[in-house]
UniProtKB/TrEMBL annotation:
Synthesizes alpha-1,4-glucan chains using ADP-glucose. SUPFAM superfamilies: UDP-Glycosyltransferase/glycogen phosphorylase. This is Glycogen synthase. The gene is glgA. Belongs to the glycosyltransferase 1 family. Bacterial/plant glycogen synthase subfamily. One of its GO terms (biological process) is glycogen biosynthetic process. It comes from Fimbriiglobus ruber. The lineage of its organism: Bacteria, Pseudomonadati, Planctomycetota, Planctomycetia, Gemmatales. Residues 312-469 form the Glycosyl transferase family domain. It catalyses: [(1->4)-alpha-D-glucosyl](n) + ADP-alpha-D-glucose = [(1->4)-alpha-D-glucosyl](n+1) + ADP + H(+). Pfam families: Glyco_transf_5, Glycos_transf_1.
Amino acid sequence: MAGLNIVVAASEVVGFAKTGGLADVAGALPQALAARGHRVTVIMPYYRTVRTGKNPPARTDHVIAVPVGSRKLACRLYGGTLPGSTVPVLFVDAPEYFDRDEPALGRGLYQQTMSGGYKSDYPDNAERYTFFCRAVVEAVAALGAAPDVIHANDWQTGLVPAFVKELLRSRPGFATVRTVFTIHNIAYQGMFGPDVMRLTGLPGWLFTPPLLEYHGHLNFMKAGIVFADAVNTVSPTYSREIQTAEFGCGLEGLLRANQHKLSGIVNGVDYALWNPATDALLPVRYDAETVFEQKPKCKAELQRRLGLPVDASRPVLGMVARLVIQKGVDLVLSASPGFLDLGCQIVFLGEGDPEYHNELQQFKARYPQQVGLYLGFDESLAHLVEAGSDLFLMPSRYEPCGLNQLYSLKYGTPPVVHMTGGLADTVVNATQESIDAGTGTGFGFGEYTAHALYETVKWALHLSRDRPAAFGEVVTTAMRQDWSWARSAADYEGLYRRVML
C-alpha cells in the first residue's frame, strides 16, 4: 500500500519547545509514521526557544504571505529535522508573534508570569494562533505537492481545518486534502471575542452557532471539531467521557452530534527515551529480569538526591505532575498524612499553581525526613522518580491520555491511578482476580476521593510487604506491556486512510 503524504501542525514539538504532552506526541508520532513508510512534515512556530537552541534551524527559500485581518505579513520558513531523525520540520518565522518566550523572565509559549506569581495568557494569543493556522495552510500551498492529510492538534491549530475547507481546497491541485483534528485536552479551547472573526478573513456567515460561534465567542476548538473530516482524542475512554456534561467542558452536545467522526487513539511512549534498560539518566539500568536486583539502587539514589534517609524498607511514593487541580494534587495532600502513618516517603516533582507550591513547601517543612520536593522541572530527576519510586501516584481528576503512567509501567513502578480517560485504558487494576490471571499492571480506584486513593495505596503496600511474589508479578507484567508509538501510528494510519475514502 502506497505511503501517505502527511503534514502535522502543532504549536509545540519536543526537542524544540514544550509545555506538555502535546509536544511529545508531535515529536514522536511523525517519526513512527515515517518508519511505516509515510512522508511526514511537521510545521510549528519559530519560537525564541527554537532560535536560541543548540541546533537552530536553517533558512529556506520559502517566504509566504499570511493575511491577518487587514494586514498581510511576509514570513520566512526555516527548516530542520526532528531530533535523531530525518523527519523535516518547518518553522514559521514571525518575530512579533513568537519571538518572546524567555523562561528565565517568566515568559512561556502561551503565558507570562505576573508579579503575584500567577500566570496570564498573552493578550494577543487569538491573533498569534489565527496567524499560525493560516500560515500552516499557506506553507502547505508553497510546498507545492498537496498532502493527503493535514493533522492539526489542539486549539492552537483549531482553525486549520476551517482554512483548508474554505480556502485551500479551492486552489488547483488541493481539492482532495483531508484534515484530522486531535483533542489533547478539551478544557483548553481557545475561546475569544467575536472581533477575532475579522482577523481570520473567513466569511462572516460562518460565525453562527452551528459553525464557529459559541455563546457569542469564536471557539478555536469548536472550529476544529466542526470542520475536520475526522476528530480524535488521545484515548478511547476520553472520547466517550467528553460527550458527557461532566467532562465535555460545554462542548459535549457538539461532540455527540459529531460522534460519527469521533474516535480515540492512545498515545505512545518513545522507548528510546523512556526505557530503564537503556536510560543513561539512571545510576543503573535494568529490565524485567533484573528489576528486583537493580531498582533498589535507583531508589537509594532518589532518596539521597532529595535529602531523605536512605532506607530500603520505607516505601517511596512518587509524583511527577503539573501542580494543578486536574492532576489530583488535592487528593494526594489530603491522603498524605495517612501515607506517612503507613511509613511511606513521598516525593513530588512539578510546578503549577502557587497555592500548591505553598502547601507542599509547608508539608515538606513539617516532615523533612519523609517528604521530598522539587518545584520546577528537571528531566534527570523525572526519570529517577520513575525508576526509584515503589509506587507512582497519578490520581488525576480527568486525564485525556497521560504518559507518566505508561513510563511507570515500563520502569516497574506500578501506577496508582484514578480510573478515568487514558488511565482506565492503559492500567489494569491489580485486584485479586487480575493478579490470579496474571494481567494486573497497577492499582486503580473509581471514586474520586482521598479515602479511595488512601485505601488503594494501602492495598498496594499490603501486597508489597506481605505478598511480595504477587506484587512482583504486577511489576514484571507491567514492564512487559507494549505502549510504543509503533502501535499508535498504525491506528493513526488507519484513521488517515478512512478520511481519504
